[in-house]
């Protein structure tokens, strides 16, 4: 068959030039491999449906797109809306699991009974809980994750019906979920146990917002229709209960999970596509050069009767074989790249752990391989078949010399390479500027040499409201007495890494705002010494102290932002606020602003109450059965220590008081800060890698074109030198030619980058998408690379012996 003969002929032809074949295949493998790896990430994160039955019908209903919902509102929404087959609620829970070697605080969720059936995922063992089990007073049951089952119970299949202790209460295990199950996919992503959420309608609050609401749309109902339905219901409820049903949003669960990273991943996909295009342009260069050296071969075949189409077809078969070699190498490279991406991907990127090269990605890679074969092969094939038979049979290099007309395709390829490289370099430069800006954010505290850990008394006698304060106080004194500890304290939730509670307050002397307009602040509870431990400066006033006890004058420390907002041009020390009751709390200190939930977010109101005076500290509430301990390590002046070396001693000191206390989330504050910037660092590394590859390929491209040009113009250069041209003149002539191509490419790339970088706005911080410093720096780098790539072959040209060059004619 003709195709079989063409394949054998192409294979023999490529085998005769192993250096060319290997270089071309490796270049393609680099482009195809990088593209396939990014396609795997985009496929796994954005394209694959969520692992629930008919996941496109699942939605999430929240306040302002992120904020939780009050139980009373959820109950009314479930009854009054018509767009959903069911609405279900979830509430975060961190119980202590006891009974193993060491107590462990685990991440869990309380769910209404309809939640797991709504997701449509069958348990691996047993069953899910029923409606009769999520009512107040029902027996405690729970469903556990596959990972928790394996870790704590070694996969024992007799786990069903067994009782485990959660916060000191017995729970009967009724089911185990399959290994791939995860819920919720955008919040509380580490949950590994689920128990019924019992809501007492008679006591359901409309202000204690703690629930995330999930729903399944009825068949044929769109998200837009559901939004209209919910808007009508919440408008009626807002009239009945002012300030409780504002800004309710309905969003598809898929978009909620992936919306924050969608732009970033698509930008990276475009970037890697540019790398592939540059790789194709480089291989096209190689094929053009190879085609020039095969002009006699093509001329002979043409003279013997081969049609232009037949010869072009055979050359395209060679390109296809090259593409297949590159594609095979690219898939192999992609497997390693995906493994590295999954390992390096920050936890903020959803579903990254499930990213793999599956059949869909392999099919897309096959399509890319076929596309690249046409992309880099068709122009050189057509160019190679356009031969002048008379000129091709002449001897000597001059007969095959190329005029300016024949350089145009190569020039266009070089210009396109540099244009694409510029776009990538500008993107990488903007990410570098962003990362530097994030690194320079002042968090308001000093994270160096600080270790943190969660200390939970849940399920122990120390959890009792009359005992917990004594335990926490005794434990912190033991920690402060340890060698190597400079100072230590507690806070309810760490800045950046911890949960964030908001609490409404009223300002003394101000009119009471309407319901729904009451101001709120981030609610922190601290022990004395917290500001010293975290090295948060106090702008005015004092820290909380051991004298600030229950029964004494209630006090609070607030941050600068809150002080300036509510008492502008005044000293806030001595002012008073209340937390909704008749008790007035005196401001005794104003602290420097610190970052809260997001590293780059502007400051927000924040208040710090002494633990002993907190409304929940001495009540049966479980809110303060746990606190986060922070301890600063003694280090030499100006040095940085590994604060986690203190961890074993601190854990031992606490467990000497009570071995049943669960200690978790042990990490350094430096690690917490690094996690806060991990997403930007991840994007920076990828964009930087793609830009570096693009720049290297573009440099190789212009170097190859100039080297080839010099080799084809040896005769011309020899004549110039023989007629008296100085080496410097020849050098400038060739460098000017190479630089002109690079500058045209740079200009095109800068114009394109000015438009495309607008897509990166959501990824940038502290720098504009049109930042002139970045654009100028990229231009200078590119010109430098182009100069070196042009200078090297130009310098070789100046060493041509004119006698040798003329004799070669």
Description:
The protein has 809 residues and is an alpha+beta fold. It is 48% helix and 15% strand. Strands 1, 2, 3, 4, 5, 6, 7, 8, 9, 10, 11 and 12 form a twelve-stranded mixed sheet that branches. The two termini are 43 Å apart.
Brief synopsis:
This protein has 809 residues and is an alpha+beta fold. Helix content is 48%, strand content 15%.
Number of helices: 22
Taking all Cα atoms into account, the compactness measure Rg is 34 Å
Number of strands: 24
Mean of the pLDDT scores?
A: 85
The percentage helix is 40-55%
Assign the structural class, choosing from mainly alpha, mainly beta, alpha/beta, alpha+beta, or little secondary structure. alpha+beta
Shape: elongated
Beta-strand portion reads 15-25%
Spatial separation of the terminal alpha carbons: 43 Å
Biggest sheet descriptor: 12 strands, mixed
Low-confidence stretches: 395-403
Keywords:
single chain; 809 residues; twelve-stranded mixed beta sheet; eight-stranded mixed beta sheet; 15% strand
How would the blueprint of this fold be written?
Blueprint: H1 2-15, H2 18-47, E1 58-63, H3 71-80, E2 84-93, E3 96-98, E4 104-105, E5 108-111, H4 115-119, E6 125-126, E7 141-144, H5 146-153, E8 163-166, E9 169-176, E10 193-196, E11 212-217, H6 223-240, E12 248-252, H7 253-293, H8 295-303, H9 308-344, H10 359-384, H11 389-392, H12 404-439, E13 450-456, H13 468-480, E14 485-491, E15 502-504, E16 506-507, E17 520-526, H14 530-534, E18 538-541, E19 555-559, H15 560-566, E20 576-578, E21 585-591, E22 606-610, E23 626-633, H16 647-655, E24 662-668, H17 669-676, H18 678-712, H19 714-722, H20 727-756, H21 772-797, H22 802-807
Helix pairs in contact: 1-9, 2-7, 2-9, 2-10, 3-6, 7-10, 7-12, 7-18, 9-10, 12-18, 12-20, 12-21, 13-16, 18-20, 18-21, 20-21
